[in-house]
Structure formats: C-alpha cells, structure tokens
Amino acid sequence: xSAPAASTAPSRPLTGRQRPARVVDVELxxxxxxxxxxxxxxxxxxxxxxxxxxxxxxxxxxxxxxAGGRADVRAQAAAVRHACGDLVGERARLxxxxxxxxxxxxGVELAGxxxxxxxxxxxxxxxxxxxxxxxxxxxxxDLRRALASLERQSYPRFGxxxxxxxxxxxxxxxxxxxxxxxxxxxxxxxxxxxxxxxARNRALTEVATPVVAWLDDDEEADRHWxxxxxxxxxxxxxxxxxxxxxxPAELETQPQLxxxxxxxxxxxxxxxxxxxxxxxxxxxxxxxxxxxxxxxANMAFAKDALVAVGGFDPALGAGTATLGGEDTLxxxxxxxxxxxxxYRPSALTRHYHRPDYDALARQMTGYGVGxxxxxxxxLRSDWRLAVPLLRLAPxxxxxxxxxGGRRLxxxxxxxxxxxxxxxxxxxLAGPFAYLRARRRARALGGGRS
Length: 449
What we know:
Elements: E1 18-27, E2 35-36, E3 44-54, E4 57-65, E5 70-71, H1 73-95, H2 100-104, H3 115-123, E6 130-136, H4 140-151, E7 158-165, H5 171-177, E8 186-191, H6 196-206, E9 211-215, E10 219-221, H7 225-235, E11 239-243, E12 246-248, H8 254-262, E13 274-277, E14 298-302, H9 303-308, H10 326-336, E15 340-343, E16 349-351, H11 357-381, H12 386-401, H13 417-444
Parallel strand pairs: 1-3, 6-7, 6-9, 7-8, 11-15, 12-16
Antiparallel strand pairs: 2-5, 3-4, 9-14, 10-16, 11-14, 13-15
Helix pairs in contact: 11-13
C-alpha cells in the first residue's frame, strides 16, 4: 500500500531552539529541585513532563508548566498531588512513612527496603525465565539503544532474541555479533517474510522459555521492567499476559507532543494496576479495547497461552496493508478464552515517538486501519461475534466521535483536525486492507491466514 500523501496541515514551527516539553524523571523520596525552562545549550521548553517515581517505583506521568521560566518545587508538588496524590498516599502507607513530606516535595528518609524493591529481591532467585524479543528492520542505531537498556536490567533471569525482519543489509546482524562475548547472550534470527507478525511468530518458534516479552526497537526499558513482569507472573500463576506503561522518552517536537496528548500508547489506563478476567473483564468488554488492556510496545505472555491462540495474525501489523492490530487481537483472543490479563504500570518502557508531522499522520492513518482490520480478523475467526459487536457499536461511536468522548478526552483544541480525519479515513479502509493483507499472507505461505 502506498504511503499517504503528505499533509499540508500546519505544525507549529520551532522558533530558534524552542521545544514543546522536557521529559524529567523525579524521585519523590528525595527533595524536588526547580526545573528550568532553558538548558545550558540554549534549548528552551514550554512544559516539563514529570515521570514520577517513589522509592524507584513509577507512579505517574505529570505535566507542569514552564511558562514562568521554571517549575519550582511548589508547582511540581501541586501537580503531583493533583495527578497521583492517592497513589503516593497508598505507597507511603505500605512503606511505613508519612505522605505529607512526599506530597510537599521535601522527600523522606526510608528505613529499610521499599516494598517495590523487596518484591524484586524475592522473585530474583527463582522467578520465571524470560526471553525478550526485539523485532527490527534496518534500524541498528535504535536497536543498539534498546539493547543497552536491557543490559541495565535488575532482573537477571532473561535472554534476548533479535528478529531481523526482511533486512536490506547486514547492519543488524553485525550489531548482534558485537554481543557474542558479553555477559548477556543476544541471539539473532532472520525472518525473510516482511511484516511484524511474521517476525513475532518466527520468534515463537525459537523461544524456549515459559515467558516471552516484547520490546520495540524504538524503546528503552526501565531498569525494573523485567523484574515487574517476573513479579506479575510469579504472583499470579494463572496470568496469560502482562502489559505495562509506556511513557515518552522525549517530547522535542510538536508532533511528538501531539501524539502523547492524543493518548500515546496507554491512554486512559493511568498508573493503577488492573486485572482483566475473561470475556467481560471488570466491566470492559474484551471486544472493545478502550482503554487499552494491552499494548504491543510493552507486553509479555505465557508462551504456551500465546501459541494456543495461534500466535499473531500475519495479515495484521506493521509491514502489511493493515498497518497494525495484531497485538490487540491476541489480547482479545486470550480474554475470550477466559484468560487473566494483567496491567502493571510499574513495568515501564520509554518510547521515542515519531518526530515529524508526516510520520505522525501516517501513524494516525495506521491506527484507524489497524482498528477496523482487527475487527475484520475477529469476525473472520468467529462470525458469532457480530452480535455483541453490534451492541457495542453505539458506545464506540460516542466514545470515538461524540463530544466529550473518551477517545478525545484530554486532547487540546490545538490538536490538528487533519490528524483525526486521517484516522477516520483509515477506519473506513481497514476491512478492505485486511482482505488484501490476507491474500498477501497466503502468498507468503502458511500461518493463520
């Protein structure tokens, strides 16, 4: 499928070295410090987005204005109280410390080990073995950064598999050979059929561990990412899947900020853990993934459960006419089978959003195409799902297009309407794209097509 034509919708130009937002990690256990709008190299920012931690546990993503030249301690503390004050109070009680100094930005001294880290220490000796899979194509620099983040993991019981999907050169293979003598063994396999689902399914034939986790090549994993995934599976033996939160690694351009304002990768889920059970988890239908019960940029599965649903549909996903949807489909199928799917926001990754407008426009089109292609794939597998889907249609239309709908909640008025139209046009094209992608998948051979 040809790429969408470049849009003429305006993107706010960056005057001089003005940038939309700084992404700043803050640890509430230590006294907060003012955040300057201008850095020594001359870059100046409108906002700071705080990735908030408490005793190393991620608990929130909080924007704060830098309009006055900086965000002082009082402004940061007020923003944190408003966005995640309840979570701070809960975690403070678990740790046996007062919440007031944490919420005032003055920090607190902890006697002993935080519960968050205590859980990790308990699971480290005999937690599940995990294989982290990175599917990639012709992006060795991004891959190098992702691999470096895995070198810093606090959980030791894992290996890494790089799946090189229909590469046009040997740069990825050459990069992986550099890890041959490292303490962390990185395996390499090439999947010649283009498409993310083909790469994911190839990984399933190579993985021998009980848990398989997926990290995109344009991400970095928080150092406790795998420890949190291991804890989730160890503490919930019935779990078939775990998904975590995805925060922006940077917001250096207006399109990156627009993407995050639209919802990023985990819109509506926040930083509260959630458990989803079976066909109608906690009142959220398995057929209606808003807010998302899982995200492809940060997901892990019990391998046997993933194999039992047939892996990933090769007619869905990046590299096909459908552009996405393969990850959502797998979560839905697991839930429809009665599986337990966990959302654990403290299993955190950082994503480098697309920096330019045309790339964001293509991504919004892809979201629309992938969404309705996902539904086409569901109906192909079981036409009986048409009845519950029809019942959900009015709610989905209200959420997607209605004033005050959940899909647009929090999206500023300055968000380009052209991007929303791109998604709508993509939704109309999705079922037809799925038919084309199915034919292509059959031509490539085998799989679920």
